[in-house]
Amino acid sequence: MARFVFITGGVVSSLGKGLASAALGALLQARGFTVRLRKLDPYLNVDPGTMSPFEHGEVFVTDDGAETDLDLGHYERFTGVAARRTDSVSSGRIYSNVLEKERRGDYLGKTIQVIPHVTNEIKDFISIGEDEVDFMLCEIGGTVGDIEGLPFFEAIRQFSHDQPRGQCIFMHLTLLPYLAASGELKTKPTQHSVKELQSIGIAPDILVCRSEHPIPQKEREKIALFCNVRKDAVVPAYDLKSIYEAPLAYHREGLDQAVLDAFNISPAPKPNLDRWYDVADRIENPEGEVKIAIVGKYVQLEDAYKSIREALTHGGMANRVKVAVEWVDAELFEREDPSPHLEGFHAILVPGGFGERGTEGKISAARFARERKIPYLGICLGMQMAVIEAARNVAGVATAGSEEFDHEAGKKRFEPVVYHLKEWIQGNHRVERRSDDDKGGTMRLGAYDATLAGGSRVAGIYGGTAIEERHRHRYEVDIKYREKLEDAGLKFSGMSPDGRLPEIVEWADHPWFIGVQFHPELKSKPFAPHPLFADFVRAAVETSRLV
Ligand code: GLN
Predict the structure, then answer these.
(1) To 10 degrees, the CA torsion angle through 170, 58, 280, 323?
(2) From CA 546, how far away is CA 376, in angstroms rounded?
(3) Alpha carbon of 475 to ligand 1 centroid (Å)
(4) Atom of ligand 1 nearest to the CA of 352
(5) Which residues are involved in binding L-glutamine (predicted)?
(6) For labelling, which of 138, 141, 284, 413 has a CA lying 20 to 30 Å from the CA of 461?
(7) Cβ-Cβ contacts under 8 Å for 492 (sequence gap 6 or more)
């Protein structure tokens, strides 16, 4: 049976709870344990699939097709353990399960209440697959005291009592603000936050204290005394230059040791941190720099493209260069020449997105990259835009466009080179979609196989012709246009196994121009950069040498 670590936050949000959880997962792995990380989000949306990336950041997609919180991306990037649908849940999902059971009569006429029905549903979720790993790390979203969070805190309190003694611990993240006027770190907010936790029956075993300044020993002792934790269980968390330094930094501050001590695991297995030393070395000592433009719509909030940003960093690490990313708003050159906005970059990436806004700008970015022979990576919508560009400007389909942007009935503005797919094959099953399905339900979501053309650039990059990548989209490039586009030079070098759905396109006579219908960024890790990103950055390095 797994040991459980429950991770909560207090004082303020955005303290880096997800990162601390992910780093702890990596450290436990380094000591030879198996781990799984889970996120429990108190918001009422059933999943983040329909939440605006402006507000909530990227939607992370799992192999089994769940649309989840971006923290699951951190978990995967730090541990390499592929997240599943059962690793992310929200209040919305919990309540909707409970209400469904109530309607079905599963509760045999009982009055349905937060305790025990909602809390039981949460506890059931926490324990899914508990016998598969040594440690289950469960992060609770939000901060202690949030109204929506209460059932989750109550559920983890009960859960720890249901388990044998010593099977569960609580780790709480807080902030130590610094008062410049008096030159002091203040511990009071942390004390209040722990009091709040204790008032709902949870006594933290470990306190992780975020601070911009070194925490003197005497302050650590004070926190330990007032918050009722052991001295060496007060772990400082300082700002880092790179998130990938977190495992080593937390190790230096004794986080993994404190966790093993809290579980009475002795002697503690020695950690092997070689992977993280190598990662830190590649980040700290780059041998050059490339400039890459991400041409998108959600450029104000970097979290909207979190995994892409990280995958580019990994690509840089593979080539020992720093990747300087600039976010370029596609709307800036919807109607004008993109050159002033795109000149000077060593590569251009057009990411995924939904809706028409900015798409003409993305199409011009693809054209600019094709004509100037600048490396281009188009992801999902970025691939669709590259195909539309090729159709319009090279293959002679002047009004090529996507059905996604043609919603006005009876008024077709575009020839649908990209069309709305309503049925497809997954494994050995036919999947069908109806327009009145739930929003998320109408998408091709999760891992699908693709077959690469032998001798293509992508087959060389992947080092094989069978791949599996994650999807999240409704629209597809129509193979009706394959011949026309291939004659023009845009090769369909990756297809779904049944040959119906284009997965990858590449320009034959271009140094590096690839569009992919899937999201390779979701599977990239600092210690295993995704081959497409590693090679894209390599191509950018080559461009940088030409100038
Ligand atoms: N909007 C496009 C579609 O649904 C692309 C989606 C994406 O880029 N993730 O097909």
Answers:
(1) -170
(2) 16
(3) 6
(4) 8
(5) 353, 381-384, 404, 474
(6) 284
(7) 453, 479, 482, 485, 486, 502, 504, 505
**Ordered domains of the chain (ranges, CATH):** 3-279 (3.40.50.300), 299-546 (3.40.50.880)
pLDDT tens digits for 360-402? Answer: 999 999 999 999 999 999 999 999 999 999 999 999 999 999 9
Q: Is the dihedral of CA 15, 17, 22, 25 positive or negative?
A: positive
Distance (Å, whole) CA 117 – CA 320: 53
Q: Which residues pair with 426 in a beta bridge?
A: 429
Summarize pLDDT for 257-311 with one digit per residue, the tens. 999 999 999 999 999 999 999 999 999 999 999 999 999 886 667 788 899 999 9
Q: 475, 477, 503, 519: which to mutate for ligand 1, most atoms within 8 A of CB?
A: 475
Q: What distance in Å separates the CA atoms of residue 210 and residue 238, rounded to the nearest whole number?
A: 6
Residue 288 token pair: 């050059």
Strands 135-140, 3-9: pairing kind = parallel
Length of the chain: 547
Q: Residue 163 is encoded by which pair of tokens?
A: 């388990």
Query: pLDDT tens for residues 205-227?
Result: 999 999 999 999 999 999 999 99
Helix (H, G, I), strand (E, B) or coil at 35: strand
DSSP state of 118: I
Task: For residue 13, give both structure tokens.
Answer: 């949000």
Q: How far is residue 185's CA from residue 442's CA, in Å, rounded to a whole number? A: 51
Which residues are designated catalytic? 380, 519, 521
Whole-model pTM?
0.93
Instruction: Say how many C-beta atoms besides its own lie within 10 A of residue 221's C-beta.
Output: 12
CA–CA dist 431, 454 (Å, integer): 28
Q: How far is the CA of 362 from the centre of ligand 1 (A)?
A: 13
Identify the residue with better confidence: 205 or 334: 205
- Single out the residue of 110, 153, 122 nearest to residue 10, CA to CA: 153
Q: Quick one: tokens of 8?
A: 């909560």
pLDDT of 426 over the 80 cut: no
Atom 6 of ligand 1: nearest residue by CA position: 473
Ligand 1 center–CA 460 separation, angstroms: 26
**Residues in the annotated binding site for ATP:** 14-19, 71, 240
Is residue 472 in contact with ligand 1, taking CB distance under 6 Å? yes
Q: Is the Cβ–Cβ distance between 217 and 193 less than 8 Å?
A: no
Residue 47 Cα to ligand 1 midpoint, Å, equals 18
CB 412 within 8 A of CB 419: no
Q: Which residues contact 509 (CB under 8 A, 6 or more apart)?
A: 489
Which residues, 6 or more positions from 291, have their beta carbon under 8 angstroms from its beta carbon? 324, 326, 344, 345, 346, 540, 544
